[in-house]
């Protein structure tokens, strides 16, 4: 019989009927991903892909707060202030895991209850069956720490209806269940009170049967009724013009969005916009992940990522000192350097 990881393992793995269950198990850190966790999940998927006893894989988060709040950003800051090799190796393996999930040959069910952000999106929103609840808060909030959406986030955001993805990326706003469904980050809505029963049903029933028995009509999204001003304002070619249109639109929600954008790293905002526009022209998730790896490595070498983590997580003063400090001061060459080729880690 296959040995099971200790109860204090950061990833719990077990077979339950014909379901292979993955539980991200760092609840005090909101199940933030470490390199070890990425490897454990990847190894489990590799084993279960060829295991006839496993017909479906289910991923969930331990604790009451959510599936996963993202990658371990304290670790990323430490790596950025060092030789940067640890973060590069982590991202390389994480992005390969994201690609594996998207191409997985067996049903991969993600229980996206509670907080699902950054790396949490990467291990859920590329799956084949993505379930949200009324508690779901799904986001790619990287610009708020001087970083850029990764884990295939630019692929998903660039394919959301109209300019909704651009709005979400540049403001770092979170989606509830209705918007996550509308924007292509989720497939089904199951009320949180029925989620445990839905998960249990997967041990004996196929995902289609479980969805039929437990999924319900989702609550209305907050963004779909605001497409007119969102599509108009975010269609601009530059971040400066987007902010101007938002500010001048006469729509209070648009002006608030402009203020949020101006509070984020100017470099990250401009690079994110460029990354989204380029991702629209890419042919596959794999190509988007390759682009994101280049962008992530470049951001790691800049000043804003460690500063953003300091302000939001270390000192918690919420007063990042971005460099440059304004959109207008970010030079085109600094944006373009994020898309330059980089050396891949040795296997």
Automatic annotation (TrEMBL):
EC numbers for this chain = 3.1.2.4
Q: Tell me where the transmembrane regions lie.
A: none
Extent of the signal sequence:
none
Record key words, sorted: Hydrolase
Asked whether the keyword rRNA-binding is assigned, the reply is no
Q: Which reaction does it catalyse?
A: 3-hydroxy-2-methylpropanoyl-CoA + H2O = 3-hydroxy-2-methylpropanoate + CoA + H(+)
Among its keywords, does the record have Hydrolase?
Answer: yes
| Pfam families (alphabetical) | ECH_2
Q: What class of enzyme is it?
A: hydrolase
Please, which domain of life does this record's source organism belong to? Bacteria
Which PANTHER family does the entry link to? Answer: 3-HYDROXYISOBUTYRYL-COA HYDROLASE, MITOCHONDRIAL (PTHR43176:SF3), 3-HYDROXYISOBUTYRYL-COA HYDROLASE-RELATED (PTHR43176)
Its name, as the record gives it, is: 3-hydroxyisobutyryl-CoA hydrolase
Q: Which organism is it from?
A: Streptomyces monticola
């Amino acid at each position: 019989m296959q040995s099971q990881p200790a109860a204090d393992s950061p990833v719990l793995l077990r077979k339950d009927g014909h379901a292979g269950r993955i539980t991200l198990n760092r609840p005090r850190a909101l199940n933030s991903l470490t390199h070890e966790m990425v490897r454990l999940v990847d190894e489990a998927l590799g084993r279960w892909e060829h295991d006839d006893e496993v017909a479906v894989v289910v991923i969930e988060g331990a604790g009451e707060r959510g599936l996963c709040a993202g990658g371990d950003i304290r670790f990323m800051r430490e790596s950025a202030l060092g030789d940067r090799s640890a973060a590069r190796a982590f991202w390389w393996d994480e992005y390969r895991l994201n690609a594996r999930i998207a191409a997985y040959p067996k049903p991969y069910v993600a229980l996206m209850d509670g907080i699902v952000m950054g790396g949490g999106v990467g291990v859920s929103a590329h799956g084949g069956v993505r379930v949200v609840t009324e508690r779901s808060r799904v986001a790619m909030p990287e610009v708020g720490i001087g970083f850029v959406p990764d884990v295939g986030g630019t692929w998903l955001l660039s394919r959301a209806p109209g300019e909704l993805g651009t709005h979400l990326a540049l403001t770092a706003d979170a989606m509830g269940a209705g918007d996550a469904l509308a924007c292509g980050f989720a497939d089904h809505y199951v009320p949180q009170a029925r989620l445990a029963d839905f998960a249990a049903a997967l041990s004996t029933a196929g995902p289609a049967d479980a969805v039929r028995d437990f999924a319900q009509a989702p609550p209305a999204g907050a963004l779909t009724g605001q497409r007119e001003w969102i599509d108009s304002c975010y269609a601009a070619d530059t971040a400066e013009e987007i902010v101007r249109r938002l500010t001048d639109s006469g729509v209070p929600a648009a002006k608030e969005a402009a203020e949020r954008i101006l509070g984020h790293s100017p470099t990250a905002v401009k690079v994110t916009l460029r990354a989204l526009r380029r991702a629209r022209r890419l042919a596959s998730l794999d190509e988007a992940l390759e682009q994101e790896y280049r962008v992530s490595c470049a951001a790691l070498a800049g000043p804003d990522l460690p500063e953003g983590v300091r302000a939001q997580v270390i000192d918690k003063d919420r007063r990042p000192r971005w460099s440059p400090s304004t959109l207008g001061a970010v030079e085109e060459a600094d944006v373009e350097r994020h898309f330059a080729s980089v050396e891949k880690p040795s296997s």
